[in-house]
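Appendix B. Raw example, untouched.
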Amino acid sequence: MRITTVDGHLLIGDPRLPLRVLLFHDAGATALSMLPLARALPAGCAAVAFELDGRGELADAPPVRCFDDAVKRLLPAFRSWGDRPSVVVGHGVGALLAHALVAALPHGQGHHIRDVVLAGSRSPATTAGLASHPRAPFLTRTREELAAELRRDGGCPAELFDYPHLLDYAVTMLGRDLHLLDTYREPAALPPGGGTDYHVWSGRGDGSLSPAELERWRLSTPSPPKPRDFAGGHGFLCQERPPAAALHELVADRLADGAGVPPRPQRGAA
């Protein structure tokens, strides 16, 4: 599978294929964290894993200042890659970015979005209610608290904690991304309908998908989301095989339905 970078974002597969899977990583991660999902996709689609400024190929770009700034910076690339039938997948803060970017699409482009998978995230209403809007990162949570959180929640290689400069980098990325949650503003609700299916996935050990949260998600999406839970905690999406298999199945169904396949010309057409 061919992997390249385009304008700092990770392209997996042939961009000429008619169906795309657009991926948004979790807080503290990078586009590379989405590779297990991308590699598990069926043939017939390409994937784009979006990178936030300040890391990866975009390490020299200034970090985003707040959630709205992140949406503004990502929107041109999202529009460009979403120029054909697409499945959008976001994890954690990436789920809220995916949801906001779909809502920000200009009239007429949203019909390309066939599915939106929102994984491991509280609802927009809950996140907006918790946002305290600090003027900068590391005011709500100190660097020491973030380092302790990395140790407590796992998901990081043990070697990370043996190298202070790597740990400092991980804490910096996590703090900047959680600042996006702290500055979150709920986007305007999309009108009902539109032909896009929404899916809300969670890890059973995470507890983010309570019945109340699922209802709040329903109020923020144009169609009732389809819930599904998996084994694992918050990092379930890229750490467990069943979510990758479920995404494979969802995308394969879209391909079987003809998503992204140009209609056959009518008889007699030029």
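End of appendix B.
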